[in-house]
Design a protein that fits this description.
alpha/beta, Aspartate Aminotransferase, domain 1, 2 domains, 3-stranded antiparallel β-sheet, binds pyridoxal-5'-phosphate
Length: 394
């Protein structure tokens, strides 16, 4: 007999994952080159060469009892110090090793942060469209997810509704920029307004509201757009980072949380998050990967490859009559469905071996998400298929 709490999770099993399985089925039937699978945000650019070199060097030359051993639950001190130094150089911050907790990717970082601060019945605000796993993470700790409706003209957060929905029970707000699924980057102006609202509401209610910046796509930004570093704008900010996308290491499960000294009772929060890391079952982030990150801390991914894909798919689809905001970051296009029921459009796409994810999987029906972290050939070869699909709808 499974636990009651698990039943809704099973019923709502991720549409993205189901589409990924469907992609594998179609590839076995028609050959991988004839399937245009835009379903999953699995990077298509290989990890930088330094990752492979670091793994080999560490395995051959370092003490295996250290490289494969337990360490402090927050992670190796030297690794956290190296990352803190890199952040300080890039963003003018002044973090120390103690401000960083190494995590099992962004997913685990978000979970341990929520575990550390959310009491049952307390509220966590998210802006639709959003990465649907947030709902599951909040429910893990019996929190209540509060959605803000999308501003489909810009996909910047709807701050009027945001202010109205903050209550004395609001414990945290999750923002994600560059954004999955729209590719939008939140402007500095937006962040300043959002921070001012949070300050005002904290004062009004005498509460602490954490701003959790979920930023696995920070490095994937185009056209020279600035991605503001949020700790500079609001004291109670916690940053969740991951190397899944920036270094193409999603299966390795490595990331970190930053909890600056300016956060209310930061030492206590750092202690709570570190213990949450242990008792959630993760214990600590993977040891070998932590050491790899320290060696590759300033490595860059091939953003130009994603940019080429972005231009080709965006131009190709808009020329066919589809409408979509031009993304400034991440590797997704959020395309308006030409029919109200986007699931019908997704189904029609399958006839042409095009796999897309319905916007309802991001709490934003009427749109579809295309993950363009695929090969350039896949994009170019998909366009004639999109042209056939367009004839049915546009
Ligand atoms: N947050 C967002 C917005 C994501 O898109 C993803 C993964 O796609 C994650 C978090 C989880 O990332 P990780 O693989 O580092 O757990």
């Amino acid at each position: 007999m499974i636990a009651e709490k698990m039943k809704p999770f099973i019923r709502n099993n991720s549409a993205i994952r189901m589409m990924f399985e469907e992609g594998n089925r179609l590839k076995a039937l028609y050959g991988p080159e004839n399937v245009f699978d835009f379903s999953l945000g699995n990077p298509s650019v290989p990890a930088p060469e330094c990752v492979k070199e670091a793994i080999i060097e560490l395995v051959n030359e370092e003490d295996p009892l250290v490289v494969h051993g337990y360490m402090s639950n927050a992670g190796f001190e030297d690794v956290r110090q190296t990352i803190a130094g890199s952040l300080n150089r890039r963003f003018g911050t002044c973090f120390a090793a103690k401000n960083l907790i190494m995590t099992v990717g962004a997913a685990s970082g978000l979970n341990i942060m929520l575990k550390a601060v959310v009491n049952p019945g307390e509220e966590v605000i998210v802006f639709a469209p959003y990465f649907l796993e947030y709902g599951a993470y909040v429910r893990n700790y019996d929190g209540v997810l509060v959605e803000i409706t999308p501003d489909t003209a810009t996909f910047q957060p709807n701050l009027t509704e945001f202010e109205e929905k903050i209550t004395p029970k609001t414990r945290a707000v999750i923002v994600n920029s560059p954004h999955n699924p729209t590719g939008v980057v939140y402007s500095e102006e937006t962040i300043k307004k959002l921070a001012a609202i949070l300050e005002k509401k904290q004062k009004e209610y005498g509460t602490v509201i954490y701003l959790i910046s979920d930023e696995p796509y920070r490095e994937l930004a185009y056209d020279g757009v600035e991605v503001p570093y949020l700790t500079k704008y609001y004291a109670n900010t916690v940053v969740g980072y991951s190397y899944s996308k920036s270094l193409s290491l999603p299966g390795e499960r490595i990331g970190y949380l930053v909890i600056p000294d300016e956060v209310d009772q930061s030492e206590e929060l750092i202690a709570a998050v570190t213990i949450a890391n242990r008792i959630s079952g993760a214990v600590n982030a993977p040891s070998l990967m932590q050491k790899v990150i320290a060696k590759c801390v300033d490595a860059e991914c091939d953003v130009a490859a994603y940019d080429r894909n972005r231009q080709a798919l965006y131009n190709g689809l808009t020329e066919l009559g589809f409408t979509c905001i031009k993304p400034q970051g991440a590797f997704y296009l959020f395309v308006k469905s030409p029919v109200e029921d986007e699931k019908a459009f997704v189904e029609a796409g399958k006839k042409y071996n095009i796999l897309m994810v319905p916007g309802s999987s991001f709490a934003c029906p009427g749109y579809v998400r295309l993950a363009y972290c695929v090969s350039y050939d896949t994009i170019m070869n998909s366009l004639p298929q999109f042209a056939k699909l367009a004839k049915e709808f546009v």
